[in-house]
Specification:
Length: 479
């Protein structure tokens, strides 16, 4: 069978996104291991619908499968409608986070034939095998299918407990294997219940279907790393798991073997309340160069009550301190534009970032994903949008009582600048958005100073520009 996977990456064109989807690559690998013909396509900001239609006409797939998140759904509907209008042959399957959390909304679309809820490897394999044999497909667990005017809603199958049984990712599916060769995932699931994240909703969907948090064996992980080193000549690794050190025994054993058999620099994600001096020293000794941690918010009420992120301010500060003491770079994640947000709470988040002084930092704008506790909160407060946005970096989609959309957008764009402006003037200016005139002028000055070898000029220029920006801010030029 021929299967075309379409990964929608529209309006996620930020420094923090990349054109690769682990789920699609895993499903593709399993299908290929059973001799199915699989092709992938990233549908991004610069993609024209005719490119997709042309690929379908050339490839003649039996199935066109879309991986869809909530911010992408409105665009996905338009694309799937055009595919259905131009081609009658391919069956359209919608999978991913949004069909899993909002199956009724997705299956009612005329252009959608099947939706895949939850893990898609074996449901998609079973679908392809049965279609190949022209057999009945209506009983496949995890799939909802249309049979005339009737929707057949199959139950979920148990979660895969043995992740080692899956083949390694098909990294060539999107023709960008060199870009993502060093990215790896060693686990599935998260045990925490942050109110803005869909993990607690997914755990509820899978209640009674087996253990939700699962890790691959260390031997299996090391084997994939060795394959990456051999095939792609990678020079570093990035663990894409939500939290790598969930199990101290597992991470301790991994670090020992990794240091002896892999010994490449790597980055990973750590939750601040799981961090310790011992952990970071162990990661550093194994080759870790940078840890990513979620500050998320500087206001205790919003962080603990609104976000249900039960991590104290002291734990956050200690985690970053321990990481730096171990010689690790740090990167901080933050979220702004939440319900009950105001200027003081945003500034509290900026101040907490200044205290921990991470190597890098970013702020995204809150998005009420369906199934999350904060989605329900926003619904009860009647602040959900009529039209859903497609980007978590550029705009807010909820109606805030104490902040305007312009203010939220401004603080997201200028967040890193405000964090570093009192710590490192030059770094602060370099954190400004690419289209900022002051940043462009300062880069020009950097070139001049470098040519003339005048280091003191850089500091003077940076301080002068900061003073000018402070004056503009007081005059309301930025807001």
């Amino acid at each position: 069978m021929k299967i075309l996977f379409v990964y929608l990456n529209i309006n996620y064109g930020t420094p923090y996104a990349f054109d690769f989807h682990f789920g699609v690559a895993s499903i593709s690998a399993l299908l290929k291991s059973h001799n199915h013909n699989v092709l992938g396509m990233v549908y991004g900001n610069r993609t024209n619908i005719n490119e997709l239609l042309g690929k379908i006409e050339y490839f003649e797939p039996n199935i066109v499968a879309f991986s869809i998140t909530t911010p992408q759904f409105s665009i996905a509907k338009e694309i799937m409608q055009k595919v259905k209008k131009n081609f009658s042959a391919p069956i359209i399957v919608a999978g991913g986070a949004h069909p899993t959390l909002c199956p009724e909304e997705v299956i009612k679309e005329d252009s959608v034939d099947i939706i895949c809820i939850g893990e898609g490897e074996f449901p998609m394999l079973e679908l392809a095998e049965l279609m190949k044999q022209s057999k009945d497909c209506t009983h496949i667990k995890n799939l909802w299918l249309k049979n005339g005017q009737t929707v057949i809603r199959n139950d979920l199958r148990p979660l895969m407990q043995n992740l080692d049984s899956l083949p390694f990712l098909s990294r060539r599916i999107f023709n960008n294997e060199k870009t993502i060769a060093g990215f790896i995932m060693v686990s599935r699931g998260c045990p925490y219940s942050c109110a803005y994240c869909c993990n607690h909703a997914l755990r509820e969907i899978y209640r009674g279907c087996g253990k939700y948090v699962r890790f691959r064996s260390i031997d299996n992980v090391i084997a994939e790393m060795k394959q990456l080193m051999k095939e792609y000549n990678i020079t570093s690794l990035y663990f894409h798991d939500d939290i790598l050190p969930l199990s101290m025994d597992w991470i301790n054993n991994l670090c020992k073997i990794y240091k002896d058999e892999i010994s490449l620099p790597f980055d990973c994600h750590v939750r601040p309340d799981l961090a310790s001096k011992k952990l970071f020293e162990m990661l550093k000794d194994a080759g870790c160069q940078r840890v990513y941690m979620g500050i998320e918010h500087g206001d205790d009420y919003i962080r603990k009550t609104i976000m249900n992120r039960n991590i104290s301010r002291d734990e956050i500060v200690a985690a970053f301190r321990h990481a730096k003491d171990a010689g690790l770079e740090t990167y901080a994640y933050n979220l702004i534009g939440l319900p009950e947000e105001n200027l003081d709470t945003i500034r509290a988040t900026i101040r907490l970032n200044r205290i921990v002084n991470p190597t890098g930092t970013q702020a995204t704008i809150f998005y009420p994903f369906p199934g999350t506790c904060l989605y329900k909160y926003c619904s009860e407060k009647n602040i959900l949008p009529e039209k859903w946005g497609t980007n978590i970096f550029d705009d807010t989609i909820i109606e805030l009582r104490m902040l305007t959309r312009r203010q939220v957008k401004h603080y997201q764009r200028m967040f890193s600048f405000y964090v570093y402006c009192k710590i490192n003037p030059i770094k602060a200016i370099l954190q400004l958005p690419e289209d900022n005139v002051i940043k462009k002028f300062f880069i020009f000055l950097l070139g001049v100073a470098s040519f003339l070898r005048i280091k003191s000029f850089l500091k003077y220029a940076g301080l002068s520009l900061l003073k000018h920006m402070a004056w503009m801010s007081r005059k309301g030029k930025f807001l």
